[in-house]
Design brief:
The chain is of the alpha+beta class and about 400 residues long. The chain has helices at about 1-50, 55-75, 135-145, 150, 170-190, 195-200, 230-255, 305-315, 325-330; strands at about 90, 95-100, 110-115, 115-120, 260-275, 280-285, 320, 335-340, 340-355, 365-380, 385-390. The chain folds into three domains: about 1-50; about 90-255, no CATH class; about 260-390, no CATH class.
């Protein structure tokens, strides 16, 4: 009897266990089916987004926010050893210098640097690699510092209209027209978004002004008030900006080139003859100072004093660059040759100052002289791979 009960119990237990296993199996199948349905739905939604461009826009927006946050962090990283004539200037590991704005009305001005000093001339830019810069903002604010006489003729109560015949306009009228446009360019390049909406947007028509592109780059407005047809809006915007912000800008501009000059690095391009000179062991270089337009300064404004400096400016001789055959082979410069020449980048440490204008006081230019006799040559525009050095006091020419 007892044995029968044990057998009966075991049979019932086996049946129950089997039922539970079947139930669990069925449950897992249902869960798997639901998960597959959700994944298919998610994939369909993602496909629709990509086909309609929605996914790309969302990714671009995330990228812009990420870049903006990165740039903000870079600008907030300070190095107390460099001031660029102002305590508010910061240098960070991204090879940039940040000139802090005096208030939230304007944006910080960022320019490229080299060895902790401003970099002028040929610049290096690569999207998502180099930090965003505002060279136009820097230059326009620096120009404001030296356009004192021109701004003195600017009409602060109304926008100056020019004559079709420019020869009929006197100097004061020309200066006023120039200064008003120059001041608007400063607003366009370094004004905060709040300031742009207030002074460069047609608020009366309800226009939704946009001042930044998909990569976070600035979209420059066209005119005061944001509407060329609405003269009243233009006038209110111009006179309001002059009254509320011109003095602030002039005070900020006065802090640039505080001692009348700026020590910086000037980057230009030169050429190396592709054939290595085995007899003298080195290369012959030319065109160390191109006549191409770079940031802020131009080779034509180079102040040459010594015989070596005059040789550079006249650019009439080939200059010898010593280099061992082993180093030449390692650099593999010949692989980069174009029509028998190799492009290289030259770096000069210079002192830059304002150049006194001629008859046209609106033409702001800057001249420069060498701070030392050393010329550095680099293989790349990022200035990471140095080729060699030259000394202007000891040049070998032919």
């Amino acid at each position: 009897m007892l044995q029968r009960r044990i057998v009966h119990t075991l049979l019932i237990g086996s049946f129950l266990i089997g039922g539970v296993q079947n139930a669990n199996g069925q449950l897992l199948k249902n869960l798997k089916k639901k998960m597959e349905q959700k994944l298919e739905k998610k994939a369909d939604e993602k496909t629709d987004q990509l086909l309609n461009g929605k996914g790309e826009k969302e990714d671009d927006q995330k990228l812009v926010h990420k870049q903006a946050n990165t740039a903000s962090k870079n600008q907030n990283t300070k190095d107390s050893t460099n001031t660029l004539e102002r305590n508010e200037v910061a240098v960070n590991d991204a090879n940039i210098i940040t000139c802090k704005a005096p208030s939230e009305n304007f944006t910080d001005i960022v320019i490229q640097s080299h060895n902790g000093l401003p970099r002028f001339g040929d610049l290096y830019f690569r999207r998502n690699v180099t930090a965003p810069t505002n060279n136009k903002g820097y230059q326009s604010l620096l120009e404001l510092k030296y356009l004192t006489d021109v701004y003195a003729d600017m009409d602060r109560t109304t926008l100056t209209k020019g004559s079709r015949n420019s020869s009929e306009q006197n100097a004061s009228v020309k200066h006023s027209i120039f200064a008003q446009r120059h001041l608007f360019n400063i607003l366009a390049n370094i004004g905060s978004e709040k300031l742009l909406i207030k002074y460069a947007c047609d608020s009366e028509s309800g226009t939704n002004c946009e001042f930044f592109g998909r990569y976070g780059d600035r979209i420059l407005p066209n005119t005061w008030g944001g509407n060329q047809q609405n003269q009243f809006q233009q006038m209110r915007s111009y006179t309001g900006f002059v009254k509320n912000h011109l003095e602030e800008l002039q005070t900020w501009a006065a802090t640039f080139f505080k001692n009348g000059y700026e020590v910086a690095y000037y980057v230009d391009r030169g050429w190396i003859n592709a054939k290595y000179d085995f007899k003298k062991k080195g290369y012959w270089v030319s065109n160390l100072k191109h006549s191409t337009r770079g940031f802020l300064i131009h080779p034509s404004n180079f102040l040459a004093y010594t015989s070596g400096e005059k040789l550079l400016k006249n650019d009439s001789e080939l200059i010898f660059l010593p280099m061992s055959p082993t180093k030449a082979k390692t650099l593999q410069l010949e692989e980069r040759q174009i029509k028998g020449k190799i492009s290289v980048y030259t770096v000069f440490k210079v002192k830059v100052r304002y150049r006194e204008p001629g008859q046209d006081k609106t033409n702001v230019q800057f001249e420069y002289e060498l701070e030392n006799s050393k010329i550095e040559l680099f293989k790349d525009i990022a200035l990471t791979e140095k080729i060699g050095e030259l000394d202007t006091n000891n040049l070998i020419v032919k």
